[in-house]
Amino acid sequence: MTELSLCTRESFDAVMRKYSDMVYRLAYSRTGSTFDADDILQEVFLRYIRADKTYNDEEHRKSWLIRITINCTRSFATSAWNRHRDAAEPDQNVGAEDPALKAAETKSDVMNALLELPEKYRTAIYLFYYEDMSVAGIAKAVGTTETNVKSRLSRGRDMLREKLKGVEFDV
Amino acid sequence: MFKDDLHVAFDNIKPSAELLDRVSAMMSEEISKPRPAIRMNVAKYAGIAAALVIAAGGTIAALRMSGSIGVDKTDASSAVTKSMETHATFAAAADGASAENGASAENEASAAAEDPGMYAGEEQEIFLDDSAVVSEFKSDEDGVQLFAVQEYSEEIAEASEDEPDSANDAINAVGDASISPVAPAAEENDAIEDAEEADFSVGTAKENISAASMGNPATGGGDTMMYEEPFAYIFYNIPRSLEMSVDGVLEYSDEEYIMGERWREYLRSLPEYKESARSDGDAEPLAPVETGEWYSDYADVTSIDSYINVYSFITYFRIPDDTVRTSLAGIYAPEQLDILLSGDKAAITAEFASGYAIVKGEKIYAPLWLDRNDTAAWTAAGITKDDISAKYDLLTHIPYLAEEIQTRITAKLDSFLK
Lengths: 171, 418
Hints:
The complex is a heterodimer.
Chain A: H1 9-31, H2 34-51, H3 58-77, H4 80-83, H5 99-107, H6 109-116, H7 119-130, H8 135-142, H9 146-163
Helix pairs in contact in A: 1-2, 1-3, 2-3, 3-8, 7-9, 8-9
Chain B: H1 2-10, H2 17-32, E1 50-54, H3 57-65, H4 74-94, H5 102-114, E2 124-127, E3 133-138, E4 145-150, H6 154-159, H7 167-174, H8 231-237, H9 242-247, H10 254-268, H11 271-274, H12 288-291, H13 310-316, H14 321-328, H15 334-340, H16 345-352, E5 358-360, E6 363-365, H17 367-372, H18 375-380, H19 385-395, H20 403-417
Antiparallel strand pairs in B: 1-4, 2-3, 3-4, 5-6
Helix pairs in contact in B: 4-5, 8-10, 19-20
């Protein structure tokens, strides 16, 4: 992908194909709900279109999308609609219409443990271990320092070790 | 391995083909739309609104005299007042820095730094990117400056149909409320011409606080609400972590959100909050990548008690230690909270200042300070070549910083190190 500015349907489709999974999974990792992730995905790309930015490179674009996704998950969580939901109520719809998803989730203590982490640790762990981002890349994407990212990864791992006995981290 | 397990867990989580088709179709429509002028697009943007209210010192005194909030030392309170004024001035001036208007906005910010009174009696619209407009108005009351970022949200219109049972329910029912600025009634606000009609009124912050203005369906979400300082300002700023704020870099990180929610819960519980009609102030700080606003923050900040942050907040309001620990649990480690509550400002500064700041004892020198001051001032502040060398890589690669500013800072750093 060489086109770094968004100006056509074709270039947008290419961007969406490349990053929709990442945006969706990041949104899911932060909300725990595929339904919320659906809405957030749409909002992220709407903002992407409207920003109509030019990016220095693909890393810049990726960082921007991550940042917007994080922002969207927050504004979504504080929306009037979401406030009327019971915060303690688990998302009953997760996987309800997707057997593969539901099967994956019921098997995954890892996912549950991740979703129980505080947001900042959860995001760092997800981006590092799933998206294979570097510490520097994560720092830039979420807008913090590398020191903070390392700290969050370290604390996130500690928390996961408590929740997932015997879990091993290769880093 | 955890990584493998994580992939097993997440590989099946992806958007459906139907969703992608739908998004693609929506975006196709959006792409085909003519690009609106920045100032016109306010109404089209869903989501957030933020309001900054800086009240005269008298308002703070009035709140204190009510006995419902802690009376803190004059140093902290005056610093808080001053910092809010400084922040709001800069925020209003520099938030409008779009790529085309960057130089203009910076000039405005510089001018404001030199003479905040330049905005007295003037209405100034400062455009962010295509998401919002910041309007600054000077009210009739001396020292009261009001800022509002107004956006239209369908959620507001929906939420405003709720019947609030209490002040807090009313606040929540409004949702991400738009806040209209106080403006001379005769003046037209071009920035919201596509929005539902907003209710503008002339007057002071106190006079315009009205529960009836909340959740007004007739306005479709463009409600007029004024914040009584300092709560509104706190709501806007307190989500920012101490760590972020000390270096002037806007890290819109997770802890901001969590902390903001917890502080809002605490503040809502205060009697003086319940008595006033307020939005819950859950406006989302605009991400620096969208607005570049971070650079405008805290231009002259050099210590943690000279502007709004977690430390000055808990000090000013005398938040009990156990409340602080409960609110910030999970955001900071227990040992960090020990430091935060220790009263040792040098230790607090050292612990929470981020890598982009140069810390000298209790003093903080953020990238913005370095940019705004010459190298002679750096030396006078005790900043050494070793200090700069240690931070060189960070300071020459500040995330989301406008290129021209980064170039300028880098040149200064190189000059200092020669």
